[in-house]
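Shipment paperwork, digital attachment
Item: protein structure file
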Amino acid sequence: MSKHLRRELDKIKKKMLSLGALVEERTRMIVQATVGLDADIAQKIIASDWEVDEMEVEIEEECLKILALYQPVAVDLRFLIATIKINNDMERIGDECVNIAERLMIIAKRPPMQYVFDYTPMSEKVQAMLKASLDALVNLDVDLAFKVITMDDEVDEIQTQAYDHIKEAIKQYPDRVGYLVNLMLISRHLERLADHSTNIAEEVIYLIEGEIVRHAKLSV
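Attachment content:
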């Protein structure tokens, strides 16, 4: 491998680490905002979304430039393919944080309710999944990546519970449908956050072992 290619790949790795740290911080903030229904934190997340978008575009352009200039093969090609996909999932995680923040802003403008689904367990699991998937990427840890995939079912189960609880609340408080629907949609966005963390874990497995596992979750 040429020194130039190695240098370019190392630059991309550093940028991916920076994007991962930024996305992890956004997720920590949205978890805090969700648990506390904090509109101020939600507003900060919305206002700073451009930072994630800008980094995502920059990394993708760098990857495409390397593919065009160096035509890498084998492990290096696999690294770039996985990086492009992980980069996209990180950007989507940023988007889902914004989606949750927007729901929180709507909820904050309406009279509070005594009934509020406790999103603490779900939020903490989602945050743990993202951290684990990024740790798996940094340390090239296959076992940790597989663990993230198994955690996804736990988040799906909590989302189902949230849906059922809030559906019952809508029956009891038909005059508060707007508030409760937005509360319900938060569970959907949290579940999508978990899905993107799972995608990152799957790409880590592909990066290390060259194995595509996204259609074989039941055998994990």
